Amino acid sequence: MNNLFEYAQACLHNVDIAEKLALTHEAKARCSQGGLSLAQLAPLADISQTRFPEKPLLLPPRLVPNRKLTQTGGVAAFFHAIAHIEFMAIYLAWDILYRFRGLPDAFYHDWLTIADEEAQHFELICQHLQGLGLAYGDLPAHGGLWDHACETADNLLARLALVPRCMEARGLDVTPGLIKKFADLDDTASVAVLQRILTDEVGHVERGSYWFKTVCRQQGLEAESQYRQLIRHYYQGGKPKGPFNREMRIIAGFSTTELDWLEEASK
Description:
Radius of gyration: 18 Å
């Protein structure tokens, strides 16, 4: 393969996990060396053609068992859930790169970098899971993140608002508290994995913010009002729940006006 979008098709439409990870890293390395064409392929495959492994079993979120960290198997179940989020994040990064065309080369380079980092996160968590006696796919998971991709398959601004600037940004709010919980348990291995993910996720959300504002500007839209409108329209329940990590969200490209609205909307 000599085209970035051929790599995207391979990663989105084949189920083999090891191959998906290897192709993601290979694409990133080759693109960094200038060895991949960004000529955009046609026709574009429908999002319904995306393929996932047989395991884990995907259930509605309300049916996925919820275990506390202090329960037997609770830490392993927690990291299995995180592994699934990171695995789906690989798909989400490849899909936004593949599905939305006619953007600057930097857009595709950014989301390829994000796909590669999400693959690294997934690999780190899988290694951690092995030490906890579990493998990815051993427990059920939910497909909610991909539902958001399907809902926004024809709307780039909605995708950017809902995935990096809502679902992924939620990690900036909750992960510092989770890191503290594992630190209190003297679980340094878990702390290291979560800290690495948090560090990278700030950059992922920032890239989502940057491209959201850039596309709004190109379309003559006011970014803050557009964000509010899209979240109200697409977010299940109408609004995200706080508390929100203002410091990290500002680093990741949120404005104080957006954060004031989120905090007010969540009351």
